[in-house]
Write a structure and sequence with these properties.
The complex is a heterodimer of chains A (439) and B (282). Chain A is an all-alpha fold. Chain A has 14 helices and four strands. The longest helix of chain A is centred in the middle third of the chain and has 30 residues. Chain B has 282 residues and is mainly α. The chains are: A mainly alpha (439), B mainly alpha (282). At the A-B interface, α4, α5, α10 and α13 of A face α1 and α8 of B.
């Protein structure tokens, strides 16, 4: 996609095409010859896994759209019709529904990997921001997709989330009416959500293209965070990373298949198999698991507007992260203090996710009921959410800016090839070229 | 590193399972019955599905609709009356005779008059009431839920249905119950406002508008199975679980093949990976 190209068209057709549309050159430079650091570990395979997730969602989604009816009277029955009367419809629908969860598992691991190895730092800020845009688009797409089966959780989830915009001053009410296409969540809402749910994945695919382009200009980061210094530090993408990513994708598909075939409804909510009824509100409205950390942040704040702002702020913070982290050292391998705070950050995110699925006033430790400070019951999920929310923001806004100035990092290796490697070669170095042709 | 990844994934999934803890608030923990279809490879017991269908037909269907089911579904692969000899479920003699017993509303294509005709396998299960208002009027204001996907629409599925159907109890003293209401510890609800006893010991469960539907020997089993409430509850729970997802068996069988394929494929990819990377220190 950029930089020097080693592609040499061989056949007559390739030569003819190369001076007109160098698309084979583009593919060759991007996925065959692309020099990739040789020390990428399995955490780096999630980019490829995510591409597969997007592909699965697109293909299954397009087929589902052939059978789905976006109308409040028929949506629920049409989804069940897909399950019952479309050939392998159950497979297509369960892949799509669980595929969303798998997509988010992968994207969260991918993001935590970027946070840990400092993949957002110069010169990869644009790469990181494009990733954040993809994440935002994914959340919008997933939310609208969950509304389409028009079950109880679909409907009441849509009511809760769209009402959040009503908290905005002045424009709130008009904005909500505009989103709904009426004065309540109803057929126009379902129709536009279907339309947008079909559109956004293609926007995601477009931004993924930019994301990969922005990756291929500076090249991959790597677990040491040290820049590639020479050819010794890299291997061509194919076959080295096609096979490593391929293996990781296959293992990931085993996890995927476990859900699709043996526990397809485990990640959903039983109430969504009850057709939507505006007059009956479910006892507990919970979003899909991947939104729970943000739901916990929203509910941690007593004021609705502040809660909404904080929830969106949690994502907005990610966009400016490259300028919040002051450390010149990319990888937290060489930042022992930051590493500790990072692990607490991961824990805080998991705690937020857990709190999002609980009732705010319930006790965290069931037996203990007298853990009160002034008027606050600290042994409640709302307080646990508050502590975790505080840490979430402190990590980005206080810890990362200060740590970079105060900490003493460990010495970094001179190059990727220098450190004692975890997997030494079985034959002497220098024999690295084209192993696929040997043996 | 891979092991760490798997551990992380396992931990993540534990967290994901958390929302299930919200299920059936206030109700007693479900009674686990043993079902042949439990577990990743469990399949339905066809004789049980037939008994379960009989209970639905003779007991449940007088109030509960099953809008998403057609008679032909009963004769499809994995269904209660599936016959491997009959390729097309619409030709299944059991299914045809079951359908014929129903009178289906239709429109005379010559005159446009509303008529009734005997059902065919292609017809949906008819609704016991013409509309929601009629259903409520006949049931003390409560709407009997459609049972097409009931097993998927309740946490613990078949086990919940079994617990509920076998769970009707005499209300504890101190619980105020109005007419047409029945106490059931497995029905989700909050009895605080109806409870005049010790506030620290509000009874579990809720008040349901359905009278205890099952009784010993209420339905005659044709295969010699004792017609107890326990058996009836189990059988109808099995039938409703099949009806909620008639393709469940196909899914599990497909899944087994997919898993074997993916495991072998992953093994081959891992071997290729080791071989290709063998000469590279990384």
């Amino acid at each position: 996609m950029s930089g020097h190209s080693n592609y040499e068209p061989k056949t007559g057709f390739e030569k003819w095409l190369d001076v007109r549309l160098p698309i084979v050159r583009l593919a060759y430079d991007s996925v065959v010859d692309f020099p990739t650091p040789k020390n990428l570990n399995y955490w780096y395979t999630f980019g490829g896994i995510l591409a597969v997730c997007l592909g699965i969602q697109l293909v299954t989604g397009i087929v589902l759209a052939m059978h789905y009816v976006p109308h409040v009277d028929y949506a629920f029955a049409s989804v069940e019709g897909i399950m019952r009367d479309v050939n392998y419809g159950w497979l297509i629908r369960y892949m799509h529904a669980n595929g969303a969860s798998m997509f988010f598992i992968a994207v969260y691991i991918h993001m935590f990997r970027g946070l840990y190895y400092g993949s957002y730092k110069a010169p990869r800020e644009v790469l990181w921001i494009l990733g954040c845009v993809i994440y935002l688009l994914m959340m919008a797409t997933a939310f609208m997709g969950y509304v389409l089966p028009w079950g109880q959780m679909s409907f009441h989830g849509a009511v809760v989330i769209t009402n959040l915009f009503g908290a905005l001053p002045i424009v709130g009410e008009s904005l909500t009416t505009w989103l709904w296409g009426g004065f309540a969540v109803d057929n126009p809402t379902l129709n536009r959500f279907f339309s947008l749910h079909y559109l956004l994945p293609f926007m995601i695919a477009g931004v993924v293209g930019l994301h990969i382009w922005a990756l291929h200009v500076p090249g991959n980061n790597n677990p040491t965070g040290v820049n590639v210094k020479s050819k010794e530090d890299t291997v061509p993408f194919h076959p080295y990373y096609t096979v490593k990513d391929g293996f990781a994708i296959s293992v990931f598909l085993i996890l995927f298949a476990t859900f699709v075939f043996f526990n397809p409804n485990a990640l959903g909510h039983a109430d969504n198999y009850i057709p939507a009824n505006p007059l009956v509100t479910p006892a507990h409205i919970v979003p899909e698991w991947y939104f729970l950390p943000f739901y916990a942040i929203l509910r941690a704040v007593p004021d609705k507007l502040m809660g909404v702002l904080l929830m969106f702020g949690a994502i907005a913070t990610l966009f400016v992260l490259p300028w919040l982290d002051t450390s010149k050292v990319r990888s937290m391998r060489y930042r022992p203090t930051a590493k500790l705070y990072f692990l607490i950050f991961v824990l805080a995110c998991l705690v937020l996710g857990y709190c999002g699925g609980q009732l705010p006033d319930n006790h965290v430790i069931p037996g203990l009921s007298t853990f009160k400070l002034i008027d606050a019951d600290l042994n409640s999920f709302v307080w646990l959410s508050r502590i975790a929310t505080l840490y979430y923001f402190s990590y980005f806004l206080i810890l990362l800016p200060i740590l970079g100035l105060t900490e003493t990092p460990l010495p970094q290796p001179e190059s990727i090839s220098e450190p004692v490697l975890s997997h030494p070669a079985s034959t002497p170095a220098g024999a690295t070229a084209a192993p696929e042709k040997k043996g | 590193m891979l092991r760490k990844g798997i551990a992380l994934a396992a931990f993540g999934l534990t967290v994901l399972a958390a929302p299930a803890a919200l299920a059936n608030a206030g109700a007693a923990p479900v009674r686990e019955a043993e079902f042949s279809f439990d577990g990743p490879l469990g399949t339905f017991d066809q004789a049980q599905l037939q008994r379960g269908y009989k209970i639905y037909r003779e007991v449940c269907s007088s109030c509960h609709s099953m809008n998403l089911l057609s008679f032909r579904n009963l004769g499809e692969k994995g269904g209660p009356f599936y016959d491997p000899e009959v390729k097309n479920p619409n030709d299944n003699p059991f299914v045809k005779s079951i359908a014929k017993d129903y009178q289906i509303n239709d429109i005379d294509s010559e005159t446009g008059d509303v008529v009734q005709r005997p059902g065919t396998p292609a017809d949906r299960f008819p609704n016991p009431f013409p509309n929601e208002a009629a259903a409520r009027a006949s049931n003390g204001g409560a709407l009997p839920p459609d049972l097409s996907v009931i097993s998927k629409a309740r946490h613990h599925g078949a086990h919940y249905i079994y617990s509920l159907l076998t769970g009707f109890k005499e209300p504890p003293a101190g619980l105020k119950i109005s007419a047409n209401q029945y106490y059931n510890p497995w029905f989700p609800g909050d009895l605080t406002s109806a409870w005049s006893g010790d506030p620290a010991h509000v009874p579990a469960g809720g008040l349901i508008a359905m009278a205890p539907p099952l009784a010993a020997d209420k339905v005659t089993y044709d295969d010699g199975t004792p017609s107890t409430v326990e058996n009836q509850a189990k059988d109808v729970a099995a039938f409703l679980t099949w009806a909620s997802e008639p393709t469940a068996t196909a899914r599990k069988q497909f899944g087994l093949a997919a898993m074997i394929y993916l495991l072998i494929f992953s093994g081959l990819l891992y071997a290729s990976y080791r071989r290709i990377w063998r000469n590279v220190a990384h």
